[in-house]
Design a protein that fits this description.
Strand order of the largest sheet of chain B: 1-2
Oligomer: heterodimer
Distance between the termini of chain A: 32 Å
CATH architecture of one domain in chain A: Alpha-Beta Complex
Order of helices and strands of chain A: HHEHEHEEEHEHEEHEHEHHHHEHHEEH
Structural class of chain A: alpha/beta
Number of helices of chain A: 15
CATH topology of one domain in chain A: Amidase signature (AS) enzymes
Number of strands of chain A: 13
Structural class of chain B: mainly alpha
Strand content of chain B: under 5%
Radius of gyration of chain B: 22 Å
Number of strands of chain B: 2
CATH superfamily of one domain in chain A: Amidase signature (AS) domain
Strand order of the largest sheet of chain A: 1-3-2-6-8-7-12-13-11-9-10
Radius of gyration of chain A: 21 Å
Largest sheet of chain A: 11 strands, mixed
């Protein structure tokens, strides 16, 4: 078998079932690929021994005819999911060596279905970021590089964020798929930046129990994978109601894979005029037009729609998300787990622990959140933002009531950029990366990013589809149609192995 | 709306995050950049609009008030920076 890391998740699954490949071979190939990819810094913690043992158990189950839907398939887990017995950091110093004594529901679901865990993937600290540059464990390097006139540019490119490690690992073939989370775009934007597929399901589709909370009304777990089919397979295992998360919804989990390749004839696709921003890059505008044409060719009906409150979504998000974060991150106080700094009394201990443990972006957001919730400002900021959130959701509700099945937009306003290029003087510059994605979290809807082309300098570009609540199936069907129509995007060759891939 | 040094220090205290004197001004600038960004929301007409507290129309799930979990104090204390028996040990709380 030639390099098994070049299989898609679906192909690997089929090969294991056909017994042309063993789970042990498949896992060992990925463990080696990870060992030689230190330069990308996609993993915070690798668990090769646990993975090899798990693969052996998968092989035994396969030979007994007891294979689960994901039996023996090696996956990476974003280091925001608590994993039993394996250090979980949220890419922050404040959790220190915290080792959960419990498994998050979503990662437990993957284990239940037979998946093999390769390790914990890097991310922006506490999921706050759009470039994976805020991690306390160093930035993630995208496996993609910009093409210049004389070959590849040496500048390190960001994989996007916050699920930068997940997206980079999948694009670099270090795992067959990865779990991620999305609060304002953190699955879809890194997927867009790395030529991978990422879906944020409807709020309530997956359980949030055991996932380190950032903004509880916005967070949602979802997969990043190399194909639409792979993402569908993963979501089926991840999704489902959980008594331990009262915001999870008791709706049946369909066979999402069956929606991949289903006809999209007669589907009504809304194209929102407000997303055609002033100064939208011509490259991205052209990609969007191509996406419209592909869906039309596949039999869909295109209709221009208006989502008038679109431009208020990003500022409203930067009130609501930090407000919820300030509440969720209050628990990191040095008392029960994680880092503890010495203080002369308890308050001093809290203040020093949190100052030492939180990075600059986290501190900014906790403080903004605290401010907008404080007495005298609560109505002016937080309540107002929640009202605007109602208006944003209503824009979508009206479009869906009008018969629109899904909305097509660009996923990001630009391709990936180089490290250090954005946000160093002005935090807001980094926030603008999420302009197309935050509306979806604000409305609680499902959204998928699917690769659709390359920029002039050779970096991936993606389109986004936004669906009705709990209609991820339509998103998979439409995304598969785009995937079929779009020119094939070749993932990068492993240039990172040329330098010393060993971890320092 | 913008924040001055006094407000920055007050917010830092409410957030229980120590902020050094040398950091106050820069932090104020960063916070003001974000506040300037969200300023435009003040112009939106929100009259008669209810704040959105739940994206999904759902009533809070309830369960019977019975014990279904617990009895694993050691797990809860497993990551404690400082412990004594089944207690978390912390610096003095009361003045």
């Amino acid at each position: 078998m030639s390099d098994p890391t070049h299989l898609t998740l679906a192909q690997a699954r089929d090969a294991l079932r056909a017994k042309t490949l063993s789970a042990s071979e498949l896992t060992k190939a990925h463990v080696e690929a990870i060992e030689r990819a230190g330069l990308l810094n996609a993993f915070i913690t690798t668990t090769p021994d646990l993975a090899v043992d798990a693969a052996k158990r998968s092989d035994a189950r396969i030979s007994r005819g007891e294979a689960g839907p994901l039996e023996g398939l090696p996956l990476g887990i974003k280091d925001l999911y608590c994993t039993k017995g394996v250090r979980t950091t949220a890419a922050s110093r404040i959790l220190d060596d915290f080792t959960p004594t419990y498994e998050s529901t979503v990662s437990a679901n993957l284990l239940r279905d037979g998946a093999v865990m390769l390790g914990k993937l890097n991310l922006d600290e506490f999921a706050m970021g759009s470039s994976n540059e805020t991690s306390a464990f160093g930035p993630v390097v995208s496996p993609w590089r910009r093409k210049g006139a004389n070959g590849f540019d040496s500048a390190k490119i960001v994989p996007g964020g916050s699920s930068g490690g997940s997206a980079a690992a999948v694009a670099a073939r270090l795992c067959l798929g990865a779990t991620a989370t999305d609060t304002g775009g953190s699955i879809r934007q890194p997927a867009a930046f790395t030529g991978t597929v990422g879906i944020k399901p409807t709020y309530g589709r997956c359980s949030r129990w055991g996932i380190v909370a950032f903004a509880s009304s916005l967070d949602q777990a979802g997969p990043i994978a190399r194909t639409v089919r792979d993402a569908a397979i993963m979501l089926r295992s991840m999704a489902g109601v959980d008594d331990k998360d009262t915001t999870s919804v008791d709706a049946p989990v369909p066979d999402y894979e069956a929606a991949v390749g289903a006809s999209v004839k007669g589907r009504r696709i809304g194209v929102p005029r407000e997303y055609r921003l002033d100064g939208l890059s011509p490259e991205i505008a052209a990609l969007w037009d191509r996406g419209v044409a592909w869906l039309k060719d596949a039999g869909a009906e295109i209709v221009e729609i208006s989502l008038p409150h679109t431009r208020h979504a990003l500022p409203a998000y930067y009130i609501i998300a930090p407000a919820e974060a300030s509440s969720n991150l209050a628990r990191y106080d040095g008392v029960r787990y994680g880092l503890r700094e010495t203080g002369r009394d308890i308050t001093d201990m809290y203040e020093k622990t949190r100052a030492k443990g939180f990075g600059a972006e986290v501190r900014r957001r906790v403080m903004i959140g605290t401010y907008v919730l404080s007495a005298g400002y609560y109505d002016a900021y937080y309540v107002r933002a929640q009202k605007i959130r109602s208006l944003i959701k209503r824009d979508f509700d009206l479009a869906f009531e009008d018969g629109v099945d899904a909305v097509l937009t660009p996923a990001t306003p630009s391709p990936a950029f180089a490290m250090g290029e954005k946000g160093s003087s002005d935090p807001v510059e980094m926030y603008l990366n999420d302009v197309f994605t935050v509306t979806v979290n604000m409305a609680g809807l499902p959204g998928i990013a699917v690769p659709a082309g390359l920029s002039a300098n050779g970096l991936p570009l993606a389109l986004q589809l936004i669906g009705r609540p709990f209609d991820e199936e339509t998103l998979f069907s439409l995304a598969a149609a785009i995937e079929q129509a779009a020119p094939k995007i070749e993932l990068p060759d492993p240039w990172w192995r040329e330098s010393d891939g060993a971890r320092p | 709306m913008s924040v001055d040094s006094a407000i920055v220090r007050r917010i830092a205290h409410l957030s229980r995050i120590a902020v050094g004197d040398d950091e106050v001004e820069r932090l104020g600038g960063e916070l003001n950049a974000i506040l300037a960004f969200v300023e435009e929301l003040n112009a939106v007409d929100v009259s008669g609009v209810e704040p959105l507290t739940s994206v999904l129309p759902m009533t809070m799930k309830k369960r019977s008030d019975v014990v279904t979990d617990g009895g694993f104090a050691d797990d809860i204390l497993a990551n404690a920076p400082e412990r004594e028996d089944h207690f978390f040990v912390v610096p003095k709380v009361i003045e």
